[in-house]
Amino acid sequence: MKTVQIGIKENLLNFLLLVVTNFFVGSMVGLERTILPIIGEEDFGLVSTSAALSFIISFGFSKAIVNYFAGTIADRFGRKKVLLIGWSVGLLVPLLVIFASSWWMIVVANIFLGINQGLTWSMTVNMKIDLAKPTQRGFAVGFNEFAGYTGVAVMAAVSGFIASSYSNRPEPFYIGIVIVLIGFSLSLIVKDTQAHIQLQTSTSTKNSTLSAADVFKNTTYKNKNLSILTFSGLSTNLKDGMAWGLFPIFFASVGLTLSQIGLLVAIYPASWGFFQLFTGFLSDKIGRKKLIVSGMWLQALSLWMILLVNEYNTWIVAAILLGIGTAMVYPTLQASISDIAEPSWRASSMGVYRFWRDSGYAFGALFAGILTDLLNVSWAIGLVAILPLSAGIIAAMRLRETLPSLSKESR
Q1: Considering the entire predicted model, what is its pTM?
Q2: Which Pfam families does its entry note (predicted)?
Q3: Of 31, 187, 194, 267, whose CA is between 20 and 30 Å from 52?
Q4: How far, in whole angstroms, is CA 407 from its chain's centroid?
């Protein structure tokens, strides 16, 4: 029997398989990112922005809820089983969109997309953390998010191109069926990481067990560091829920073509994905707090920049900066959670964090729709930017450094 070892190099093949798998996980979201808001207006005649963004609300809440339970289920039954279930559910998404005869079917499709993402993405990140040493967690999470958001970006651009060349439906969503089949096949090959968790638990010097209720309380509000990280994650995805729904509408309102919108909508997650390859690793070297604080502020400033400029190339720069700001915090927040949580309840704590973080998608779409209907799309973007700015200020004032090599007290 092969000896279980902790470390990315020691588990390189399994680590790389998980990286490739998460590329296809992200591709499922990218498939919708450019064209679904436009499908709502053009194919189903939705006039209200709130109604048009209802698919993001359904996605956000279902993904958030599944994230919470996925961590607990994975701690009990193993990561690989949950990963395979997630891909099985994912097949319903492109099929429902292809055959949708009314908007409620699109909303239901995005409930299943939320379940798919909550199970698959949660497992790929947890499995990479299981394999990595404590000093490699930022890099592990960064690589995972790099792969996922590269998938989002690639498929956002591809779906926009296919839609402009053929039609909004069904052609772009045929690709979704292929993505699910590839993702499921890769997940069959991936090895479970249960033995790695057991090894870390047996060697932990703080091997306590917390109930699900205690993990929820600690991650949400009782533990100062965990609660700040959770609020920062929620603020980040609230901003992204708004961007997902409003960016295509905003850029269409200023006269850009569908292919131009597709490129702008793709550049933001592409920048987000690419720079996570470096920011996660950087957080392992210089610490988590600096990246979290500055990244939250850069997100807010980039949104205001989009509103203040009126030229295509400058919008591209703003989209890249928005992606960089998100990349600075996304892997760092999750690595910081894993610094604090103990192996026995780490996936559960990550599940609670991801529950609140991904509920931000729903709240972002909800607030963006209401603000756009009451005011206009520019006001909605500008007001939402206040939240990541506030989260950065709170983190600057109250968050302690969690990287073990820089802080003796991580709780």
Answers
A1: 0.80
A2: MFS_1 (PF07690)
A3: 267
A4: 27
